């Protein structure tokens, strides 16, 4: 585990941000945390630096001159299907969030944000994509006393099996992907329901309640509400 953590800290990060102050703050903060950031001041420069290096993650500001972050993200995704992309934006409209995920984004952070939040999200994405968990390649996950078989849509504990619906199954996996971290409501709704309307939001709450019922067999495993933000999947 320590070796993986050290490897993640050395990850090369492309930061495309046209605000000079924020760009400098971001790169200095990431350097202080052991990462290797490269700063680009617009989308065109960001693309040039991307094709000339091998990055572990891209942090892209949406509103940039010459080439916006979504356009840059789409170009990066065509060139590389797996490199994680985090979008930074001053906007919080649903349309922008949808566009971010459509253009291949893995996460979406609205300004202003704390550096600690960015760091947590960055490390979570790097763990999932660079070897600690490799969640996308796995279909069977263990937490507490449970075994979750995503492929067969089954949640097991001891001799008890609970067959999950498609949405329960997708939500269970997404919660596990954000184990002991915040899963944003809008992110889950967009990924599983297709939009974050009020009706779908209430529907998701029903599914979360069902999953809580299934998980009662192990009191160390919980789904906690973060009011107005999302959920935290707590495991031992």
In brief:
This protein has 236 residues and is α/β, with parallel strands linked by helices. The protein has helices spanning 2-9, 20-32, 43-51, 69-79, 94-102, 115-129, 166-177, 185-192, 198-215, and strands spanning 12-16, 36-40, 57-61, 85-89, 107-110, 140-143, 146-149, 154-157, 160-163, 182-184, 222-226, 230-234. The chain has two domains: 2-129, Response regulator (Rossmann fold, 3-Layer(aba) Sandwich); 138-234, Arc Repressor Mutant, subunit A (Orthogonal Bundle), CATH 1.10.10.10.
Q: Can you tell me the CATH architecture of the largest domain?
A: 3-Layer(aba) Sandwich
Broad CATH class of the largest domain: Alpha Beta
In the sheet with the most strands, the strands line up as: 2-1-3-4-5
Name the poorly predicted regions.
1-6, 132-136
The description of the largest β-sheet is: 5 strands, parallel
Structural class: alpha/beta
The topology string of helices and strands comes to HEHEHEHEHEHEEEEHEHHEE
Q: Number of DSSP strands?
A: 12
User: How far apart lie the N and C ends?
Assistant: 16 Å
* CATH fold name of the largest domain: Rossmann fold
